[in-house]
Amino acid sequence: MYPYFIYFAVIIIVPLWAQMKVKGAYKKYSQVSSSSQMRGAEVARRILDENSLYNVSIEETRGYLSDHYDPRTKTVRLSTNNYHGHSVAAAAIAAHEVGHAIQDAEHYAFLRFRHALVPVASIGSNLSWVLIMIGIFANLTGMLLMGIIFMAGAVLFQVITLPVEFNASNRAMDQVVSAGIIRNDEEKETRKVLNAAALTYVAAAAVAVLELVRLILIYTGMSRDE
């Protein structure tokens, strides 16, 4: 009883804690203006141009922290607050998304691998739990194993996301410093925003791996009982 209580507490609390950290850091540093007074869109354009990525466009998108890079259309999309904002947080997030654009242009191996895993992860996340639930309730170990295999593809996607995101953040720091977008005394604040955002990916990967391990243990237990 207690191990399961602890397990479910972890998979619920850890993601919530990570979300609170990123929202807290973003709220705090979105109210701190950067020394350059550049809007997020201007930060993104500056870094893109300095890396000769003139073909990558920048668009405003709806939503809260909905910022992302679309490799299909070569577009950096920034949420309204970060597109128009001239805060340390807006500069950090804009630079991070441009980091993905630079990865794409340089054919960064982990990014390519993650892109290749998208269909696997999509099928795995949608189909795995159907197979797993059937396998558990109908006591069909073969069905459960198939569900675990599909889920492993989705978990691998989560794990591969970590080096992609950390690398994009490292690139972002290098770019905002070298371009003079932030001062030396703003580096710590910028890194706090990037690190807080990275926590959400770490939490998601940790929970996914933990859940996969739990299901593997259930499968081994069922196999022994046959």
From TrEMBL:
Keywords: Hydrolase, Membrane, Protease, Transmembrane, Transmembrane helix. The chain crosses the membrane at residues 6-22, 116-138, 144-164, 193-219. Pfam families: Zn_peptidase_2. One of its GO terms (molecular function) is peptidase activity. InterPro entries: Zn_peptidase_2. GO terms for biological process: proteolysis. PANTHER family: MEMBRANE PROTEASE YUGP-RELATED (PTHR36434:SF1). This is Zn-dependent protease. It comes from Mesobacillus zeae.
